[in-house]
Design brief:
Layout lengths: L1 E7 L2 E6 L10 E7 L5 E4 L4 H20 L1
Length: 67
């Protein structure tokens, strides 16, 4: 289940709840489009990109908790 969509450096990312109930770590996938314009969710291959998105999402939910 998608719980959030965020934009980082001009790219969109989907934040998903894990399927396994005992896991607390969210799944982060990059949103891309195929040649026909269909939305695709793909793994983030670079650790640096994943960390940047994870930090941005963590900052967003922290700010929402304060409000």
């Amino acid at each position: 289940m998608v719980i959030d969509i965020i934009e980082v450096d001009g790219s969109e990312y989907a934040i998903l709840l894990p399927v396994e109930e005992d896991s607390e770590e969210a799944i982060i996938l990059k949103i891309t489009y195929d040649d026909d314009g269909n939305e695709l969710l793909v793994d983030i291959e670079e650790d640096e990109e994943w960390e940047k998105v994870a930090d941005a999402w963590e900052e967003k939910i922290t700010l929402e908790e304060v409000e």
